[in-house]
Amino acid sequence: MTGSDTGFTGRGADLVVECLVRAGIDRLFGVPGDTGVVLYDALYHRTEDITHVLARDERHAAAMADGYARVRGTVGVVEVSSGGGTTYVVGGLGEAYASGVPVLLITSDIHRASRGTGALTEIDQEALFSAVTKWRATVEDAEEIPAAMAQALTQLTTGRPAPVALIFPEDVLDQRVSLEAIGGAIGDRLDARLPRVRPEAEPADLDRAAQLLGQATAPVILAGSGVHLSGATANLRGLAETAGIPVATTIHGKGVIADDSPWSIGVAGNNGGLDYVNAYLADSDVALLVGTRANATDTNSYTGPARSATVIGIDIERSRAGRNYPGALALVGDADRVLAALAERAARAVPADLAERSSRLRARLDSARSEWEARHAEPVRLAERQLLPADVIRLAQATMGESTVVVADPGTPTPNVAAFWRVPEAGRRVIVPRGHGPMGYAIPAAIGAAFARPGEPVLALTADGSFNMACGELETVSRFNLPIVFIQFTNHSMGWIKMLQHLYAGRRYFGVDPGTVDAAKVARASGIRGVRARELAEVKAAIAEAVRAMAPVYIDVEVPHMIDHTPPVPAWTKALAGDTERPVY
Questions:
Q1: Which element (helix H / strand E) includes 241?
Q2: Which domain holds residue 346?
């Protein structure tokens, strides 16, 4: 195969790789299979241009691409082959689809001549991926590859991000093709930067929104991951400061404003949401929702903001702008552009009582925050050799540095990271999979994060249930000697589900108590250091050594079960106080 500025001659697989390289993609995550052999041969010849990361499972490869995309702010690429590879990868794409992560799936398929014969691995891939991609296409001729790749990248980088899939029959990958240079209109569209298009909201709608915010007595901004995707953190801060509006975030939005900002009030909702943040949202009269689904978890079952509040929704998709609040004013456009326009309008029409309103809101929130912090600083009685997740998280951040990227699994890690991890400056450094909440996400996603931030240590917080779903990828960590500090919160059960049974099923525990696996031994068997730490000093020493050596470590920490020490999950606090009606999510 030869590729140059004057022409291209080779196989379809070579052309796929050439398109990726020209789009600026230099890494992909995948697992080989029968139908993808030619693609792997093409990658073999381009190792100076694009790096392939071999995963141990296709679901994990998708999580790696997901974590890479979130941390680097670009398109992540995952590659699998037909049959088991395609069915496995669906589990990894579901989270990216629900969370708005731009992941390009490249998959090989059976030979076109074998269609309908019951061939090994035959499946309708377009139908299979329909629930976890925003767009998908099968390429039937190698000459269509540049146009198909350009269309896939356009879909990824315009509108709301979500996975897209390109499907290549193995004979198309092997097809000889001779084309002129990939240039002109197609060449211009081979671009993985995002967002590529930044639509602006209607001026009349912006005027109305600015007026509503200016007239409010208790305004609030609830910001989600759309602010990260748009790179809108500076304009979010600008609007908050100009108009005197407190900013709460969803879990996905954590980090869109620095925790040290006087207008940052913390995470809202029912998974790590702070009670005083939820209370302020519930009392707000005008709420600006920015780049968030504002679903039941994010809004604490639609109590914060209340459905009776005046709601303004900013989203790049009209169907998603304030969709869970009937009558909401929709500002359809790119978050960065819309926030900038609102800040400009707010600066031109400052309410006469702005200073008084700002002082009143700040005093209320500062008092509530101080009370919450004092309450959570009180000593907790623990069983011997157990550690409190919040203490471990604070210690890890102090030892590794405030700007460390942290990737958290569902279960114990999520609410504790949401509540206790501090973000010192705006940026996407906290990755939590709350699209679907898939267990086993943190280990592979941390691999993607480590490749996205080379030379920097990454913290991955997992739990014993998630470990057993993803521990095979510890070998991948060892193979690349990635500087990831893994901390496992062990409570010897499927803790989240057992807690639900404790609160809402009459304490009838069923199917939630698997046997114990020695995670530290598994880590050592995989080629990385494994430690069972039962004191904070042991945790600190293990972290410090890993950071000094820029080498991976797996630290197993014993923590109390959620039944014995309830994490910051507001619905559970209510249930323990007697309200045992299970919330609808």
A1: helix 233-243
A2: 203-374
Helices (H), 296-388: 335-348, 354-375
Q: Which amino acid is it at 364?
A: R
Burial class (CB in 10 A: 0-12, 13-18, 19+), 181: middle
Q: Which two tokens stand for residue 327?
A: 């009558």
Is residue 102 within 8 Å of 160, Cβ to Cβ? no
Tell me, yes or no, whether 408 and 289 share the same domain: no
Q: Which of 135, 154, 189 is the last residue of a domain?
A: 189
**Same domain, yes or no: 100 and 243:** no
3-class SS letters over 259-291? CCCCCEEEECCCCCCCHHHHHHHHHCCEEEEEC
How many whole angstroms separate alpha carbon 431 and alpha carbon 251? 9
Among 374, 397, 416, the domain boundary falls at 374
The values of phi and psi at residue 232, to 5°, are: -100, 20
> Which pLDDT score, from 0 to 100, does residue 384 have?
86
Looking at the fold, whether 210 and 84 belong to one and the same domain comes out as: no
Specify the CATH number for the domain of residue 416. 3.40.50.970
Instruction: Note whether 309 and 326 are within 8 A (CB).
Output: no
State the Cα–Cα distance between residues 483 and 546, nearest whole angstrom: 7
244: domain CATH number is: 3.40.50.1220
Rounded Cα distance, 247 and 265, in Å = 6
- 104 and 223 in a common domain: no
Note whether residue 581 is domain-resident.
Answer: no
Tell me how far apart the alpha carbons of residues 443 and 410 are, in angstroms, rounded to a whole number. 12
- Residues 180 and 207 reside in one and the same domain: no
In whole angstroms, what is the distance from residue 109 CA to residue 170 CA?
A: 6
Whole-angstrom distance, CA of residue 407 vs CA of residue 432: 6
Total Cβ atoms within 10 A of residue 448: 31
pLDDT reported for residue 3: 47
Report the 10 Å Cβ neighbour count for 211.
Answer: 12
Q: What is the DSSP letter of 36?
A: G
Q: Which residues of the chain have pLDDT under 50?
A: 1-6
For strands 176-180 and 7-11, give the pairing: antiparallel
Task: Enter the tokens of residue 296.
Answer: 């039941």
How far is 395 from 393, CA to CA, in rounded Å?
5
Q: In this structure, what is the dihedral angle of CA atoms 202, 204, 208, 211, given to the nearest 10 degrees?
A: 110
| pLDDT of the residue at 35 | 97
How many residues in the chain? 585
Tell me the backbone φ, ψ of residue 143, rounded to 5 degrees.
-70, -15
Contacts of 542 by beta carbon, 8 Å cutoff, 6+ apart: 529, 531, 533, 553, 555
In this structure, are 325 and 364 located in the same domain? Answer: yes
Copy the structure tokens of residue 43: 């990658």
Is the domain of 42 the same as that of 69? Answer: yes
β partners of residue 76: 103
Q: Are strands 286-290 and 219-223 parallel, antiparallel or unpaired?
A: parallel
Q: State the Cα–Cα distance between residues 93 and 65, nearest whole angstrom.
A: 10
Residue with tokens 């919040």: 390
